Amino acid sequence: MRRGLLPAVLGAAVLLGGCAAAPASEPETTTSVRVFAAASLTDVFGRIAGEFEDAHPGVEVELNFGGSSGLSAQLVEGAPADVFAAASEDTMAIVADAGLLAAPPVVFARNRLEIAVPPGNPAGVTGLADLARPELTVALCDAGVPCGAAAAEVFDALGVAAAADTLEQDVKAVLTKVRLGEVDAGLVYRTDVLAAGDEVEGIPFPEAEAAVTAYPIAVVADAATPESAEAFVRWVIDDSGALLEEAGFAAP
Description:
Helix 5 (about 145-160) links the parallel strand 6 (about 140) and strand 7 (about 165-170). A five-stranded mixed sheet has the order 2-1-3-10-4. It has a five-stranded mixed sheet with strand order 7-6-8-5-9. It is an alpha/beta fold. The protein is built from nine helices and ten strands. The chain has two domains: about 30-110 and about 215-245, Periplasmic binding protein-like II (D-Maltodextrin-Binding Protein, domain 2), CATH 3.40.190.10; about 115-210, D-Maltodextrin-Binding Protein, domain 2 (3-Layer(aba) Sandwich).
């Protein structure tokens, strides 16, 4: 301390009751992990992110949900993200083939389709073949997104030509149509039916086994926070099995 400042400092100490003010503490820094995730992961990833943040103070998870195809296109076009969790290996392959992954993806869960109908099933839907009934209003995912590709596989397996009245860009949009009573039936994932509770009814069908959906996850190559991104991926793979099972996902 320079001598010329000493009297002023002592005077300030007197004004503060004879005690010098304590130095201000450094502000806490927060690291963000930006996660692009399939729409069908919305509910369970919200819970997984909360548990991860509790176990990793100072790390905040930013979740961006959407159709896997749209998310992969955004990543290829340069959208910033640290982690990608897709609802199909094909959409993950688009990102991998563009050289945008830090390591090979790992499948962490599987899912299968289920018919969703409004409460009470007013149209009397009993199985997949009913979705070809011309008097029904049916919502499906567009064939370009994983839930739509899976739907096409199960229809082919059964030899059913279902005519969709509306094609949606992600499975949550199909579920919303059913929840609002805008359609008689829709094809969604089993996990979406469970998440909707009593707002919809689910009708399983055996042909769903022909198109089980795999969910891969990976760290993006240019992740801004690679260590935290890798920690989140490991948390999903190693520490989130119970939450995934509770949400209706099958083991990888």
